[in-house]
């Protein structure tokens, strides 16, 4: 149960693909977990309620703490990139699911020049329906646009500062074409974010994506959150649990260690790479914040939390941007 709850959806082939169907279903798992953690105060997100209904089922404390560490770590890296570039950049969220980062960044006056999301066409359609029918979501986008530069239909959103497209990360020509149609600018410093995405692609496919990202932008950063240390018994149980749900971790062999995660980035065009497991990240969180979240609910098995967190990692890599200090970016 624990491993299943930390899934996020990648982008993949058309909806008829049965393997992709199992992976796509994990979008709901991740969204429900985030919604529950927010509801009991782990972090503040006033927008997730418009995408996900609150489930009656309680999520385990170790799951909530795992999500807290994940959201904290990714946000720290994202905001460090925005700060270094003074928001004169673009962000591409690969496999974004029901992510609400765009709206939160707007509230904090931290929007990049343009924020892109990519995901399964079916998930994109669902997300766009929610945006269309809920003014709390659509108004902030419209405020940033003149009417003629705002397109929102069943399959794509494009506006001055925000775009959502349905695409397949394994078809890089099509992906690039769709992003360029929405005015992706290869001259801008670019941050790409992938949370539990690459692990669902074969090592060859994820290598091609990483190489495309490194080659497409002169100045760039890549954030990858996914499994690590998957060769042990705990990791094998995680793989089997997902396989039973027709959800195959096609790229699990690249998740052997923190070193294998870094090497994948370095061998595909990235100049500097770092990786930590989520227990290390959790242990480095500000003590006041840890005390706050640990007071939210009782955890009787610290060992399970440690096991779970040691099987997920946060990796990031940079290319160029020496004048901006991108190589100095870290998770705290």
Structure description:
The structure is a single chain. 48% of the residues are buried. The chain is built from 13 helices and 9 strands. With 332 residues, the protein is of the alpha/beta class. α8 links the parallel β6 (190-195) and β7. The chain has helices at 18-24, 26-39, 61-85, 101-107, 121-133, 135-143, 172-181, 203-216, 233-243, 258-266, 278-283, 287-294, 302-309, and strands at 90-94, 114-119, 151-152, 156-158, 162-166, 190-195, 220-227, 272-277, 312-319. It is 42% helix and 15% strand. Mean pLDDT is 91; it is low at 1-16. It starts with 17 loop residues before the first helix and ends in a 13-residue tail after the last strand. It has a 9-stranded mixed sheet, sandwiched between helices. The protein has a single domain (4-328), classed as Rossmann fold.
Task: Compile the SSE list and pairings.
Elements: H1 18-24, H2 26-39, H3 61-85, E1 90-94, H4 101-107, E2 114-119, H5 121-133, H6 135-143, E3 151-152, E4 156-158, E5 162-166, H7 172-181, E6 190-195, H8 203-216, E7 220-227, H9 233-243, H10 258-266, E8 272-277, H11 278-283, H12 287-294, H13 302-309, E9 312-319
Parallel strand pairs: 1-2, 1-6, 2-5, 6-7
Antiparallel strand pairs: 3-4, 4-5, 7-9, 8-9
Helix pairs in contact: 2-3, 3-13, 5-6
In short:
With 332 residues, the chain is α/β, with parallel strands linked by helices.
